[in-house]
Design brief:
Layout: E1 7-9, H1 21-33, E2 38-40, H2 48-54, E3 62-66, H3 77-91, E4 98-100
Parallel strand pairs: 1-2, 2-3, 3-4
Helix pairs in contact: 2-3
Length: 101
């Protein structure tokens, strides 16, 4: 039986203290030491996706992200597909684990 999933909320990434891939390294080491293996981010979290991609976080962590939903105008099927592709590109990954809508 698996334990409780521990997920880091990535909203703080791209804020002071976590603005470069090098600054993220200390955070990554802390998360790994505490057995956190998932980072949750979102399109609306500033440069979070971009910084995670630059830091190659997807090679060390499971990455989940969120569609901007009502915050970003347009919600056609194609818009959602395009925004998902944009997130994957920023994250420098082939795919994310979960895309929340």
């Amino acid at each position: 039986m698996p334990g409780i999933a521990t997920v880091f909320g990535g909203a703080a990434i791209s804020r002071p203290g976590f603005e470069t891939p090098e600054e993220l390294e200390a955070l990554f080491k802390l998360l790994e030491s505490e057995n956190v293996n998932t980072i949750d981010t979102a399109q609306i979290y500033g440069d979070s996706e971009k910084l995670l991609g630059q830091a190659k976080a997807g090679s060390r962590f499971v990455i989940d992200t969120k569609h901007a939903g009502g915050i970003k105008p347009g919600s056609t099927r194609q818009d959602v597909v395009n925004w998902a592709k944009e997130s994957i590109e920023k994250l420098n990954m082939d795919q994310v684990s979960l895309l929340f809508l």
